[in-house]
User: What shape does this take?
Amino acid sequence: MPGQETPAHAGAMRLQVRGLTVRFGGLAALTDVDLDVADGQVVGLIGPNGAGKTTVFNAVCGLVRPTAGTVTVAGRPAPRTPSGLAPAGVARTLQGLGLFPGLTVLENVEVGALATRGGAHAHGPDGPARAPRSGAARTADPGDARTADQRDARTPDRRDDTAGRALRALADLDLADRAALPVGALPYPEQKRVALARALVAEPRLLLLDEPAGGLGAADIAELDATVRRVAATGCAVLLVEHHVDFVMELCDRVVVLDFGRVIADGRPDAVRRDPAVTAAYLGIEVTAR
Amino acid sequence: MNARRTLLLAAGGLVLAIGATFLLDPFRNYQLALVAAYLCATAGLTVLVGLSGQLSLGHAALMAAGGYGYALTVNALTGAGVDGVGRFLGGIVGAVVVSGVVGLLLGLAGARLHGPYLAGLTLTLVVAVPAVAASVPALQGDRGVRTAFDGVPAPLRSLIALEQWQAWVALAVAAVAVTGLVLLRDGRAGLRMRAVRDDEVAAALAGIAPARVKVLAFVASAVTAGLGGSVLVFVTQSVSPGAFPLGLSLLLLVAVVVGGLGSLLGAALGAVLVVLLPWLVGTVTDALPLPDAVVQRLDGTLASLVFGVLLIALVAGAPGGLAGALTAARARRRARRAAGGAGGRRRTRPSRGGAAAAPPTGDPSAPARPATPTPTPSTPREPVRTPTEG
Assistant: This one.
């Protein structure tokens, strides 16, 4: 069962999916999917094309109505409409880019800042609850110090304007000097980072990343890896869908494998790697090649 | 974002524009009043289409709604013994309420419709409104509603002519309408509108309720169009179904595209074209040695032809419209100066809007000047030609 493999250090349960079933007409896109993501945890959702990964995201985001099952965010039912997500502390990036091509880089990120006030209290009583990470390596991450600074800087400043928050989010991802450019003028990896900045500027407690590494090169992926670790270190729960298996296995605390709309494996990356069902369904060549 | 600066600019622009009316003869002031009236409508339309991405072919109907709202309220107030400023402001409130309600209903429907379906709905409205207005007894059929005459206030009577006074009032209303739209565009609402226009799903995931944003855009656009309609009624003292035909709706849209979609400067240029182009074309055909029959035939239709050719030429050559072309030229000049000067230090400064941002102005007459094509010899007193005729 999901949850059993949850590392002991993880915080409160942020996302709980129980018995999620989605049917499109006669086609069962998802059948009885269970999924947990705890605060501070990074969970990878993988599976072959058409396994239903993005449908899980869409059901969590209110873009698809579940046929059966429940989705709860921080113990409360997930918002029924996508526009309720940001106030509930959930941010999502879209497969591809999902940017606003008619807006500048800064404006794109500002849009993400509109829904929340900024400051750690934006998402209600559970906002300040930060799960301490285990592992000295993560606490020593240089990003952690920066995040602490940022938190201190913004807590008293609750009327902070959206542009200022957006600029800071851009600076965090080394995009500050791109702020005034039309977003289409940036190379693809930087556009990907703008999309990530737009999600992060809302200071989410649950971050859903749909193929964040898609189309990125090795250096960009390493940078993305560091960014996700940094975000998780602040106590944010991260769920990501990704085809890039090495990236997922390296980064994630837990990996959930979907095949034909069912969960066929759920556990630590090394356990999932060795799981014969996974090997058969999806990872076969990748794993035996090692 | 800087609301105070916008308000100061608007006030300054209005004072300048009012000063400029002293340089114009009465007919030019009459035309200026019409430009201000159409500016209200084109400014609202450019915000709706350019910023929120909703196409309306029915803005003449929204002008009509405002016009009837104004006329009926003014007549009711006249009956109650109110006159002067109170009556005018009451009429404006009537225009805002009626056009706002029509805009709200349209917006609520529009939030569920996309692209051609919304355009179809607004097209239906603009066809239906004159027909309905003509058959409702309270609106007095095809003859329309006449309103009481608002003359120049007594203290100013020795100073200015009626047309100049009307231009002042029209400019003041347009300044309020355009300033409101500038504040909307530069604020969070404007950013939300552009986000929804570009990608509704991504906007919703960022916490924006697309339907609410679209309805807000429609109401704002309808109210400003209604203000434009009320100014027309104030100037002509009457409102009738024939004054707001389908042709006017399309002309407003063409004006907005020619001016530059999403740009308020473009909306001002478009409003100038709506008023001046038919008159210019008429002046030219009158001056040419043509047989009377030909002149009569060209009257009205030639202006449409010129508008059409202008539209095609601009969309092909400068898709950003007149305002876009101006901005591009300015950017080129600045780039050339920067390349020649200070050692190519590249420093990007965050600025809003980009090409779509017109300098906030409540002054329709200032941009009007450069847009007025070659000065033509004209007689000041000639039959008044408004674009709604013919």
